[in-house]
Amino acid sequence: MGEGDADAQLMLRYAAGDARAFDELYAAHRGALWRFIRRSVREPAATDDVFQECWSRVIVNRERYRPEARFATWLFRIAHNCCMDHWRKTGRRDRRESLDEDAIAAAADESLDGPVDALRAGEASERLAAALERLPPEQRTAFLLYVEGGLSVAEIGETTDVNPETAKSRLRYAVARLKQALGDDAPD
Amino acid sequence: MEKDREPPFPREPWQRLLQDRGVDPPETTDARIRAKAQKAVAPRAARWWLPASLAASFLIAVLIVQSQYGREEKSTVLTEADLAAPAASGPPAAIEDSSLARDRAAESGAAERRDSAPSELHYEIAPEEIAPELEAGANEERIATKGAFVSGPEQELKAASEMDAEEIDPPAPPPVPAVALPDMPASAAAPKIEATHEGAARTRETGALWSGPAANHRTPEAWYAEIEALRKAGRIAEADAELALFEAAYPDWLKQQGRRKP
Q: Using an 8 Å Cβ cutoff, are B194 and B181 in contact?
């Protein structure tokens, strides 16, 4: 799987000492990774730290990379671990995890009753971002890994250490809530 | 498994919505990460190139200095050709005779010998071996002959110092024709032999012996006493020549010691 992956080949080239290969990899993934981390940690100040930490781990572990999985899977797994470390430090995830499903659903519903002006302005992306923040972390991570990271359901399960069924379930719940928050602006 | 691979919903519309926010990492972060990545794979040898080259330069400098000091302290070196001369163990004229003989031999088989690789053998005579003989005032002719065998760096230094001395001391030694050693190119051998003969002639003329480091290590007091002895013995010219050399070597010694010229 990974052998045919162009990114995996770039990573192998970088591990062999080709700095240009890293530039290509970085250019290809920086935007998605940044958005993933930004929406995962939800703190603009911490996003930069976690983002740099993530790439630092890529650099340090370059020789340990094996193209058994796609590069994106490996990269987003590192990013996910970095986010987990950040949550551990700040304790924020614990607070989020303490919220029950009803509270989350209520929060998602709130977004439906949000400011009328925002709804009318059609700022769907703003509302999506707001709805994302209200999702439980596992669902948000699954959604971001799927959309931003381009990971498959199986890869999401592998990255987050759950079985594919659980990953698929989280993804389904996340999309349902986001659609609910976006209303008519939600993609089909 | 195949079911897991099927995308549960299309990504692209969601990606468009998320990317509309136009959020990207700052350029400074980009630059920092790229620099870190480049530094990580930079060749390690380059990091050590400067210290390694400095260490190598220092080592070479130390070796050069050591070799120079070693050369200075090394005993005199004799060539195989020179070794043939003492067999005659005759007066200086014998040296010239042997030189002429070598000349003839060189002429007769010059081409053959020039083609062959140089087989110069060096024999070392420690300064301690020569010095006692000098101090004991051994046979002047014998010593003079031995002086003719001095070669190598000391011999070159001697030739140079004699050139300086000759500038001070007008009476020049009788010219000795340059002789090509049989096993060396004429151009390389000539100056060495010429200098050797000059040394011998000089030694014969002045009676002051130069025999490598032993002579150089004479104390000014001892030298001064020798000059006085020469003058007392009525060897005025030799004493004057020695004095000139002495003053060249120790310009301020007489003043410092408050002594007058012997």
A: no
- Top residue of A30, A49, A75 to mutate, by most chain B CBs within 10 Å, is A30
pLDDT per position as a tens digit, A142-156: 998 998 888 889 999
Model ipTM value? 0.74
Q: Give the contacts of B136 (CB within 8 A, at least 6 positions apart).
A: none
Closest CA of chain B from A93, distance in Å? 22
The predicted-structure confidence for B53-94, as pLDDT tens digits, reads as follows 899 999 999 999 988 887 776 555 555 555 555 544 445 444
Strand partners, B77: B124, B151
8 Å CB contact of A175 and B25:
no
State residue B22's pLDDT score: 56
pLDDT digits (tens, 9 = 90+) for B85-96: 554 444 544 445
| Model pLDDT, residue A129 | 82
Identity of the amino acid at A149 = G
Are residues B33 and A55, on separate chains, in Cβ contact within 8 Å? yes
Rounded CA separation A94/A137 (Å)? 10
CB contact under 8 A, B24 and A56: no
Q: Which residues of B touch A126 (CB under 8 A)?
A: 21
Asked if B41 and A19 count as a contact pair (C-beta separation under 8 A), the reply is: yes
